[in-house]
Amino acid sequence: MNLTETTMKHVVMGLFLALTVMGCGSTKDDDGEGPDGNPNEQSAGLCSASKACPSGQFCFNGLCAIGCQSNGDCAADQYCDLEDTGMAVSFCKNKKVPTCNSNSQCLSNQVCIEGLCSLAPPPNPPSCNPNTSDFKDGCDTYAVCLDAADEGSQQPYCASFAPCPEDGVCPTGLGGAVCNDGYLPNKGRFCMQGLCSDNSNCPSAWSCVKPFSGAVLGFCSPGAFGFPCAENSHCKSGQCFGAPGVMGTCM
Question: Where on the tree of life does the source sit, at the highest rank (predicted)?
């Protein structure tokens, strides 16, 4: 792994770790309804590290996904993701990524993280390695191993995130998001919250700040005091303190 990949892995892990400790509200108890409580939406089985899906299905962000060859194999509100190289077989995924303001708008096994519903961390997470150089971390292709031990609270665990929508454009949520279209090796297509490839992946008036010159991915910054920046225009104060070509801090 080169310096660029190593640095970006540290950025990705840090952002994922920060985002997973955020969430609010109560959870929904009825597993038979869709994320917005609409019983007319397709009801998929819930799954987790301790609750496997039926044979022929796959656990994706807390939902059992069905294998497919075309959109005709999927429900009306889903599409067959033929572009995902994370698995040898394609799976049905939601055409749109549900957004949320609280846990009550997500399924009972999910939490609202930065405006998107994501699988809640398990109480007894299976072991994984957050320090691999190629993202072969012991998690499935739609999850990333987070080193929660940095927070002094629990061991590393596999965290799943919302699958990319049909058009490949993830909702910005509260802190931005970009689809993993080959950015992370050995991982599938899911919305990487807080990360960006350009300003369009961030909330309005935020900037996509790259950690160094030539970086493919960066992360969304509101430009307030103490937030990262790469140039003066990234800061509300118009002052970015840092060396040229590397990430600095808004003054």
Answer: Bacteria
Q: Which residues contact 177 (CB under 8 A, 6 or more apart)?
A: 114, 116, 170, 171, 191, 192, 193, 194, 195, 196, 201
Q: Whole domain around residue 109: which residue ranges?
A: 3-196
Distance CA 168, CA 190 (A): 9
CA 223 to chain centre: 22
The CA distance from 186 to 184, in Å, is 7
Of 170 and 74, the structure prediction assigns the larger pLDDT to 170
Q: Domain end: 196, 222, 239, which one?
A: 196
Each residue's pLDDT tens digit, 175-228: 999 999 888 888 889 999 889 999 999 999 999 999 888 899 998 999 999 999
Output the pTM of the full model. Answer: 0.69
> Alpha helices of the chain — where are they, by DSSP H?
3-20
Give the CB-side neighbour count of residue 145, counting CA atoms within 13 A. Answer: 20
- 44 and 164 co-located in one domain: yes
Measured at the CA of 27, the angle between CA 25 and CA 29, to 5 degrees, comes to 155
Say how many domains are in the chain. 2
Give the DSSP letter string of 151-192. Answer: GTS---EEEE-PBP-TTS----TTT-EEE-SSSSTT--SBEE
DSSP type of residue 137? -
pLDDT of 88-131, one tens digit each?
A: 678 888 898 888 999 999 988 888 888 888 887 777 767 788 88
